[in-house]
Amino acid sequence: MYMSDVVPPEVKPKPAVPAKPPNVGAPSPSSPFPPQGPGIGVGSSAPPPSAIPVPIGSHAPGHVGGHSVGHGVGHGVGHGAGHVGGHAAAHNGGHAHSGSHTSSGGSTLLGYIGIDTIIEQMRKKTMKTGFDFNIMVVGHSGLGKSTLVNTLFKSQVSRKSAGWARDEKIPKTVEIKAVSHVLEEGGVKMKLTVVDTPGFGDQINNDNCWEPISKYINEQYEKFLKEEVNITRKKRIPDTRVHCCLYFISPTGHSLRQLDLEFMKRLSHSVNIIPVIAKADTMTIDERQEFKQRVRKELEMGGIEFYPQKEFDEDMEDKSDNDKIRETMPFAVVGSDKEYQVNGKRVLGRKTAWGIVEVENPNHCEFAQLRDFLIRSHLQDLKEVTHNIHYETYRAKRLNENGGLHPISSNDTQESNL
Predict the structure, then answer these.
(1) What does pTM read for this prediction?
(2) What residues contact residue 124 under an 8 Å CB cut-off, 6+ apart?
(3) Range scoring the smallest mean pLDDT among 101-110, 140-149, 276-285, 378-387
(4) What contacts 43, CB < 8 A, 6 or more positions away?
(5) Furthest-apart CA atoms within the chain: distance in Å
(6) Phi and psi for 214 in degrees, rounded to 5?
(7) Cα(230)–Cα(233) distance, rounded to whole angstroms?
(8) H or E stretch covering 23
(9) Which of 330, 323, 334 is nearest to 362 (CA)?
């Protein structure tokens, strides 16, 4: 070998950086997560990785609605990495940044690693396990609670759809009745539980009629807590906690009832309350706008916070999106499970003497905005606020009161699930 044939190390050609394999980490054509539809404060771009619904009991990348993936590991079974206290304790002063740079040195990756495939892995896992969503409807009878829930999920999921008779008498006290259904769309399974509260606000004397509802909400927290402190915990703890409470406001056009204010004030710190104005087609457009402004003002004067709460906005993007939603609330909605022919299309609506009120037409009511907000952009965030804020508040209070809960036996666990 001649010396002229030796290539100095410093001038050796650098190895070619391997290109990212095609379709790695990209959703398959049959992906159940289509581009997010237009919602309030939501752009037309595809949903962020954190918008993938992940069940309680598995690891989540972060929040829905544009939140960064840098929140740390979501709330697993142990929930040790959950961010408690202001919805952001695990942020450590800021969001982590994705991309090809590390947070400490900023060194460039020399090739494709495959970190981004974690999203696809989580998607596959979620497809297998499914997830839970529990929604409570509260309001006096005749406001169309069951009809609206059926319209939201485009199926007969309400209590009245499950063997309820029209001649059923109004109960003398507030009752709690829950009905569960498994819905599947695009391969994603969701166990939906609708909790109805017949008898609320229907009595002559409605003093303390919110107590059975508050008791039920806390009982679900207690059931989850007992499963958590058990020595032998289930791989996936059944989640019966109420993630969202739709509170139906009567379309009086005047002001909120004292019962409305009292209920929301007492329960706003234990559950995510979303106020809606029922049967909005009974008001003119001007009456509706004036009533919405009056309701917002009364809630503000009463110090009543509804979801999404301002203190849980994590960054300016969140604040901007949620401010637009808060300015629109309470949503003035119309529900219907009947279809009519309008301009050659079948639409859900209510037929009147002067025309058809189209439920999903944003010019007629705000049902579409409520649906996009509740299901398409903030469903996972509702679950996370429930776990990281409301449940943690209850958990801390219980553990402080009792000096810690003792592990319970398997027999006690079975009894608590009945």
Answers:
(1) 0.70
(2) none
(3) 101-110
(4) none
(5) 107
(6) -60, -40
(7) 6
(8) none
(9) 334
